[in-house]
Design brief:
Layout lengths: L3 H10 L4 H5 L2 E3 L6 E6 L13 H19 L4 E12 L8 E11 L3 E10 L4 E13 L3
Length: 139
């Protein structure tokens, strides 16, 4: 779905955003999914040293948002409407986590995504459901 060129462009644009501060990077894939990675670091840990649940939610909303933007060819505005998450297991205290987003519904005015976040060992850490509004661009 996402080419290396597309990911390089998006990752460059994210450098001075919250996603850049969290170290989130999008990864190319040939599948109908969106992939991203995020380090477990000071910016994404909570005070016990493990991945902060809010970082997982921010990552999930961002990955689903980029997926919706990709599906509408950047011709519409994508706005997050709802994010719900279940934290399944504690994360490692270092390394990276990976988000895998799958579109469950791609309607004209809304998209629904499932996002699973796993550790480097492939163990499920959290799963999120994200709903995005798809809005016309103002002219």
């Amino acid at each position: 779905m996402l080419t290396q060129e597309f990911c390089d462009d998006v990752n460059e644009r994210l450098k001075n955003t919250m996603l850049g501060a969290m170290g989130i990077r999008f990864l190319p894939t040939d599948e109908d999914i969106i992939l991203a990675e995020m380090p477990i670091c000071d910016a994404t840990r909570q005070y016990f040293g493990i991945l902060h649940g809010g970082a997982s939610l921010a990552m999930a909303e961002s990955v689903a948002g980029l997926g919706s933007l990709y599906l509408v060819n950047d011709e519409k505005i994508v706005c997050g409407a709802q994010v719900t998450g279940n934290h399944i297991a504690m994360s490692a205290t270092e390394g990276k986590v990976y988000a895998r987003a799958t579109c469950l519904h791609a309607g004209r005015t809304s998209h629904v995504w499932n996002v699973d976040i796993v550790g480097e060992d492939g163990k499920l850490i959290s799963t999120e459901r994200v709903t995005n509004y798809i809005l016309p661009k103002k002219q």
